[in-house]
Write a structure and sequence with these properties.
The protein is an alpha/beta fold and about 325 residues long. The protein is built from 15 helices and ten strands. Helix content is about 45%, strand content about 15%. Strand 5, helix 6 and strand 6 form a beta-alpha-beta unit. The longest helix has 17 residues. It starts with a helix and ends with a helix. Keywords: Flavoprotein, FMN, Monooxygenase, Oxidoreductase.
Length: about 325
Amino acid sequence: MLRTTFTEAFGIDHPIVQGGMMWVGRAELVAAVANSGALGFLTALTQPTPEDLVKEIARTRELTDKPFGVNLTILPSITPPPYAEYRQAIIDSGIKIVETAGSNPVDHLPHLKDAGIKVIHKCTSVRHAVKAELVGVDAVSIDGFECAGHPGEDDVAGLILIPAATRELTIPVIASGGIADARGLVAALALGADGVNMGTRFMCTAESPVAQAVKEQIVANTERDTKLIFRSLKNTARVATNAVSTEVAEIEKGGCEFSDIQHLVSGARGRTVFEKGDLDAGIWTAGQSQGLIHDIPTVAALVSRMVTEAEALIAGRLSEMTDMRVGAAS
């Protein structure tokens, strides 16, 4: 098995993570990821109340006895969710791994650390990752420009971002963005990462709770079938290309305020895409890794395939290339 400082510290078998995804990180998917030996995260804010989150954690525990975590994404909002109550629900439920994202998690860390919880913070730049280490997180997940969702405003792809981050950090680094198979896993490890995070790839599995039409569209899409929206608002998001994201991008070209596009990008409309399979009901997140996804396997089959093929790559092709260089040198 591929063992890293991350697998050892977090008590998992494989250096593969299914990060939090709004409307996607539910019990069936997370439990399947945990049972495969990888690390899955429920998405706290997918649950309408902290009490519902407690129930979803309990439901996940009915499906697996392996480690799993909860994602808590902290974003500025006119009417913010009751973050402290969600945090307390996580603590009271005995969760030992939390993934934070969005704003600096410094206000939440003392509460989580006092409860013996390990924290992974998602970042989109080296400077934010360094800050996260300084405030006390246990690992960072670094998002390259290829990723779904919010890749930041620096436009730095993983091939640069991953080694730049691992050069500066001493805590485990999880590579995120553009990874969907064994080749991405091996490349990330070669770049210095201790594991990989996949969102779009796990969304396109049998246990994923999104509609079958969404999964089939991911398989049909190529790496070119995403749109960058909210660029003019300095809040870039990568989403799947559809009628709505195309309309948003066109409106932005002429200059706009968020209020001009708010009706198009509401979370409720995106939820309809995932739950009803109406691909043009709203915007929905997907990364450039779509171009590497050609099937809808079970989670167990996906993780097993990735690990087996990664080990074969390391022991086979890469080892043979090393032997060839040694032979040529002698």
